[in-house]
Amino acid sequence: MAAMMIGRHNLLLMVTGFFLNCRPTSTKDLGSGRSFLRDDDSITLDTSFFLRESPHFGLPMQTVTVNAGQTARLTCIIQDVVDYEVAWMNKDTNTVISLGETVITMDTRISVQREQRSTWILTIKNVTVRDHGYYTCNINTQPPTSIQGFLKVVEPPVLEDGDEEVWVLEGMSAHLSCSAHATPTPTYKWIREDYNTIRINSSTFVSSWIGRNLTLHHSNHRSAGGYLCIASNGYPPSVSKRVLLHVYFAPLLRGPGMEVRAHVGHSVSLTCLYAAYPSPTVVWVRENENEVLQLTEEYYTITPQDGHPPYTHNMTLHLRKLVHSDFGRYTCIVTNSQGEASYTTVLREVIAKKRPVTSTKSPPENVSLFPKLSSRETSHLSHHYQNYDYQTKNLSAPLIVNMKTGIYRGETGIQPAPSRDQSYSPRRSKNIARISLKDVNHELSSAADALRKHRHFPLMLLTFSVMGFLLP
């Protein structure tokens, strides 16, 4: 150990002599050259001084920027060094780092390499903020010459411990803060986690806030939520911290409407939108003519509502295949430590109106075209026309028309009705066939010609006139 200390002492003396440009012999300037006065008073002329060129720096030193923890390299380029010595120094601390390629400092992170005879590289591993500053590359000329460079050590922000959750009563002010250490000093920016505006007070809303501390005055349920503090100093990566603000407030409630209508057998859903903190107790109550019933959880579902302030949920009541007892008053009730809120909706039954029934009953199959006659009139007609035969029909029998088949019938014989295409007028009902008056007139004319020859023609004419009157 003693030998090591003596060796370092001798090295320090050598470095001191380097910077003082001292030699063990005295020198005198002899005009055109440099002479050395020896101890025996003899003078020797050093002619090599006239042959070598003065050293100079090839390029200026650049500023080197590195993140803390990385390796920094500072480069010094010197032309025509010949046998001059090069030394590195820390200008801020005024300490010698190296002489030539020999490192003098005790810091094991530091080393010096010479490349291609003209390049000296100072290497510092795992740099810290303490290494930040100016460094000089020196040549032991007379007077000494030097060049300096700057080592910039930057440190991305590193967040410090702090509150990650804050609780406050509605109407009180909330204080959020964050802190980070970095080089250079970082700046702070606050935004909302949901990208909504920040409510500073009842009249001030901002998209972001600059500063370490964020104060929200007179907070309410819309102030609650996550806030991000972003620290940055221009050197990535930036870092962020999430602070969750809880605001205690009484339940807020919005219902499906004062009245909802539905049909028996159909399904319906009733939804109450509520917000409350702390988490509330929620129930549905049904009241009809017979009872008041608190519904169990199997009747409804609770889901978070996106796009609304925090702690907002939907409470949806599902009613399927409605029966009469399902109709009545439904109330959703929300309760927490800060208060209670309720909303009532009346579910009414929709009663379908009965449509008027249109009769489609067919008339009797056989409809007489003659009015009812007395027995005396019938016997009179039978006596006078019992021997008359008109197209194989006995006209003393009542003349009957079948309304379904469209065929004239008598007691004896059948005669087809006139052709449908030619003999029917537009039908007023699909259940009733109408005979064209034209065809009836044609039949009456034929019958009239036959009856003119008969002695009872006037009575027969009266009969067929009655038949024509009855037809439409």
* Amino- and carboxy-terminal Cα gap: 146 Å
Which CATH C-level class of the largest domain is it? Mainly Beta
Could you give a short account of the major beta sheet? 8 strands, mixed
Low-confidence stretches: 1-7, 9-13, 18-37, 45-52, 367-371, 380-440
Number of domains: 4
Strand content: 35-45%
> CATH homologous superfamily of the largest domain?
Immunoglobulins
Principal-axes geometry comes out as: rod-shaped
CATH architecture classification name of the largest domain: Sandwich
DSSP summary: helix tally: 5
| Class per helix and strand makeup | mainly beta
User: What is the count of β-strands?
Assistant: 37
User: Which percent bin holds the helix content?
Assistant: 10-25%
Kindly report the average pLDDT value. 76
- CATH topology group of the largest domain: Immunoglobulin-like
What does the secondary structure layout of this molecule look like, with pairings?
Elements: H1 2-20, E1 26-29, E2 34-37, E3 43-46, E4 56-57, E5 64-67, E6 72-79, E7 86-90, E8 95-99, E9 102-103, E10 110-115, E11 119-124, E12 133-139, E13 145-159, E14 165-169, E15 174-177, E16 180-183, E17 187-192, E18 198-199, E19 205-206, E20 209-210, E21 213-216, E22 225-232, E23 239-254, E24 259-262, E25 268-277, E26 281-287, E27 292-295, E28 300-304, E29 312-319, E30 328-336, E31 339-349, E32 366-368, H2 375-385, E33 389-390, E34 393-394, E35 400-402, E36 407-409, E37 414-415, H3 420-423, H4 437-452, H5 457-470
Parallel strand pairs: 5-13, 14-23, 24-31
Antiparallel strand pairs: 1-2, 2-3, 4-6, 6-11, 7-8, 7-12, 8-9, 10-11, 12-13, 13-16, 15-21, 17-20, 17-22, 18-19, 22-23, 23-25, 25-29, 26-27, 26-30, 28-29, 30-31, 32-35, 33-34, 35-36, 36-37
Helix pairs in contact: 4-5
